[in-house]
Amino acid sequence: MTVADLKVGQYGIISGFSTPEIETVMLEIGFSLHQRLEVSQIAPFKGPIAVNLGSSVLTLRQDEAQGILLKEEVFR
Amino acid sequence: MKKIALLGNPNTGKSSIFNLLTGLKQKTGNFAGVTVDLKVGFAELNNEKYQFIDFPGTYSIFPRSNEERVVFETLQNKQHNSFPDALMVILDSSNLERNLLLFDQLYDLNLPILLVLNMTDKAKKYKISLQHEALQQMYPNATIIEVNGRIGLGKDRILEALSSLKQREGEPAFPFDEGTENHKQDIEKRRIKIKRETSKIIDTSEQPTRKKSQRADRFFLHPVFGYVFFLVVLFSIFQGVFTLAAYPMDWIDQGFAFLSNTLSNSLPPGIATDLLTQGVLPGIGGVVVFVPQIALLFLFIGILEETGYLTRVIFLMDRLMRPLGLNGRSVVPLISSWACAVPGIMAARMITNWKERMITIMVAPLMSCSARIPVYTILISIVIPNENLFGFLNLQGLVMLGLYVLGLVSALIVAFVLNRFIQNKDRSFLLLELPSYHLPRWENVGTMVYDKTKTFVLDAGKIILALSIVLWFGASFGPKGHVVEMSIEQLHPKGVEAPKDLNAEQLEHSFIGIFGQAIEPAIRPLGYDWKIGIALITSFAAREVFVGTLATIYSVENGEENEKTLIAKMKSQRFSDGRLVYSFASGISLLIFYVYALQCMATVAVVRKETNSWAWAIGQLVAFSLLAYFLSFLTYQFLK
Question: Do B433 and A57 touch (CB under 8 A)?
Answer without folding.
Answer: yes
